[in-house]
TrEMBL record:
<keyword id="KW-0375">Hydrogen ion transport</keyword>
<keyword id="KW-0732">Signal</keyword>
<dbReference type="GO" id="GO:0012505">
    <property type="term" value="C:endomembrane system"/>
</dbReference>
<feature type="signal peptide">
    <location>
        <begin position="1"/>
        <end position="21"/>
    </location>
</feature>
<dbReference type="Pfam" id="PF05493">
    <property type="entry name" value="ATP_synt_H"/>
</dbReference>
<comment type="similarity">
    <text>Belongs to the V-ATPase e1/e2 subunit family.</text>
</comment>
<keyword id="KW-1133">Transmembrane helix</keyword>
<keyword id="KW-0812">Transmembrane</keyword>
<feature type="transmembrane region" description="Helical">
    <location>
        <begin position="37"/>
        <end position="56"/>
    </location>
</feature>
<protein>
    <recommendedName>
        <fullName>V-type proton ATPase subunit e1</fullName>
    </recommendedName>
</protein>
<keyword id="KW-0813">Transport</keyword>
<keyword id="KW-0472">Membrane</keyword>
<dbReference type="GO" id="GO:0033179">
    <property type="term" value="C:proton-transporting V-type ATPase, V0 domain"/>
</dbReference>
<keyword id="KW-0406">Ion transport</keyword>
<dbReference type="GO" id="GO:0046961">
    <property type="term" value="F:proton-transporting ATPase activity, rotational mechanism"/>
</dbReference>
<dbReference type="InterPro" id="IPR008389">
    <property type="entry name" value="ATPase_V0-cplx_e1/e2_su"/>
</dbReference>
Length: 70
């Protein structure tokens, strides 16, 4: 459930950032396309980093070894 909700949050933030970039930096179609591409790429990269860290915690590769203390 947490994965889906956070993914939706990333989508909403990406849409809001795309709209802000389009409204604030409206200098022509080529520039708008560049800004949109940069915002979408940044959003996807941030989501992928978060998703990899989130999924890596589900099944850790290194298992702690408990020592027996008397």
């Amino acid at each position: 459930m947490g994965f889906l909700i956070t993914t939706l949050i990333f989508v909403v933030v990406g849409i809001i950032a795309s709209l802000c970039a389009r409204m604030c930096c409206n200098k022509g179609p080529a520039t708008n396309l560049l800004h949109l591409t940069l915002v979408i790429t940044a959003t996807v990269c941030c989501w992928m980093m978060w998703a990899i860290v989130y999924i890596a915690q589900m099944n850790p590769l290194i298992v702690p070894i408990l020592s027996e203390v008397e």
